[in-house]
Design a protein that fits this description.
Layout lengths: L9 H10 L2 H20 L1 H7 L1 H18 L16 E7 L2 E7 L16 E4 L2 H14 L29 H5 L24 H9 L15 H15 L3 H13 L5 E2 L19 E3 L2 E3 L14 E3 L1 H11 L8 H7 L4 E2 L7 E2 L5 E2 L2 E4 L4 E4 L4 E9 L2 E8 L4 E7 L8 H13 L1
Antiparallel strand pairs: 1-2, 1-15, 3-7, 4-7, 5-6, 8-11, 9-10, 11-12, 12-13, 13-14, 14-15
Helix pairs in contact: 1-12, 2-3, 2-4, 2-12, 4-12, 5-8, 5-9, 5-11
Length: about 425
């Protein structure tokens, strides 16, 4: 897989889920069961000790260190770890946060729930919820063609007369490529294309299938959807997110650290921004052209993402209730996602993958996990929840997916939420 990819192919992730060692599942399940027994004996003590977030952190940290240090065991101090990790857990009992590592080599402050990380493709969830909110307000329709919201001189490709709609874009069924041909030259990031150049890439793209039929993951399509919504609202994408989601939830440490011409980290958050890591070395933030920043340009903290999870899980009531619930309403099956849940004994339950407004929904038609992961140079991220258990988890790591495969984060979260 190219190390330039912003996100991860669904088929690679889910194949690794099936192939994961049952012993790994059993270990974390046993730990969770032990904590559950302890909770029954003393619930108030549990909430003060962060047992659940510690379990998730310890499990994921073990896998991160094994990958970073070639499956060897080392006694490592926080200051020497080429990655930092923050885990948050949320339930009706409140939140727990556990952390490991430091902000950077130059800043040995221990990371915590207020530490800022790039969240990559989690950005697409904010595009999806903004879309549903605008649909509910009658500003746009899911079956509107993309071309309706772009300048008249922009040619949007069609397939035998079938046009790309907003719903096609949010469900990755538009037929647009991951990135258009020639985009990754030589890398997919830090290409300072103007909006007009992005439009030209779009006009030069072709569709392999009819829109709305086949799921083909597209960063390009997601980015263009965010751009179209911001044009319709008449505000920059970051302000669109602020007006519709961030200000509602008080997510004051979430935003976009770039403008039309380059990376631009606000001064007041620089000291809290964890340095990313690639191959053990600190890395700089990468740039997205403004017209596709909806594909993965956001930063956030675990504390902010727990607010976001709480609202999506219905633990708090907000004016976004309808838009959020509709964002994880199943809209399309994911053909590469039809893989089983595996319990600690090795028994497989047939499971099915679906996509909502960019949430992934994995279900065995009884249980379900609603989740989304993200990755960009130097960072990996995930948020997920089990609606039946009212249990959610957020994981942020300043580690690159080529160094620590995303399956490790997904694996840890899925097991925790299911068992």
């Amino acid at each position: 897989m190219s190390t330039n990819m912003i996100s991860y192919s669904r088929i690679g992730i889910m194949l690794l889920i099936v192939l994961m060692p049952v012993a790994s599942v059993s270990t974390i399940v046993l730990q969770i069961q032990q904590v559950s027994a302890s909770n029954s004996a003393n619930a108030s003590a549990q909430s003060s000790k962060n047992e659940l977030s510690d379990i998730v952190l310890d499990k994921y940290k073990q896998r991160v260190l094994e990958h970073l240090f070639n499956n060897k065991t080392y006694a490592i101090s926080n200051s020497s770890i080429p990655a930092s990790i923050v885990v948050g857990v949320i339930s009706p009992n409140g939140t727990q946060v556990s952390a490991y590592g430091n902000i950077s080599k130059a800043n040995n402050t221990t990371v915590d729930g207020n530490t800022i990380f790039n969240i990559g493709s989690l950005t697409k969830l904010f595009v999806g919820i903004s879309l549903m909110d605008m649909v509910n307000q009658g500003l746009v329709r899911l079956d509107d063609p993309l071309e309706k919201y772009l300048p008249a001189n922009v040619t949007v490709p069609t397939y035998q007369g079938h046009k790309i709609t907003l719903e096609d874009l949010i469900t990755h069924t538009s037929g647009l490529p991951y990135w258009p041909p020639g985009w990754c030259n030589p890398t997919c990031f830090n290409n300072y294309y103007t909006t007009q150049e992005v439009y030209q890439f779009l006009s030069n793209s072709s569709l392999a299938t009819r829109p709305g039929v086949k799921d083909v993951y597209s960063n390009f399509g997601s980015g263009l959807l965010g751009h179209a919504l911001s044009l319709k609202a008449g505000v920059p994408l970051e302000q669109l997110f602020e007006d519709r989601i961030l200000n509602v939830l008080g997510m004051n440490s979430t935003g976009i650290a770039m403008n039309a011409t380059g990376v631009s980290v606000p001064e007041d958050i620089k000291s809290r921004f964890a340095k990313g890591h690639i191959a053990g070395n600190e890395s700089d933030l990468v740039f997205f052209p403004q017209a596709v920043q909806g594909a993965g340009a956001m930063y956030s903290t675990v504390n902010d993402l727990l607010k976001f999870l709480s609202a999506n899980m219905g633990l708090i009531d907000t004016k976004l209730n309808d838009a959020m619930q509709e964002s994880y309403t199943i809209r399309h099956p994911v053909s590469e996602f039809q893989l089983p849940f595996v319990d600690p004994s090795g028994h497989e339950s047939p499971a099915h993958g679906y996509v909502g407004s960019d949430w992934n929904i994995q279900t065995d038609l009884g249980r379900k996990i609603i989740w989304r992961n993200g990755g960009i140079d130097g960072y990996s991220s995930l948020i997920a929840f089990n609606p039946d258990k009212q249990l959610g988890v957020a994981i942020l790591c300043s580690c690159y997916f080529a160094d620590v495969p995303p399956i490790e984060m997904i694996n840890t979260a899925m097991t925790f939420l299911l068992y």
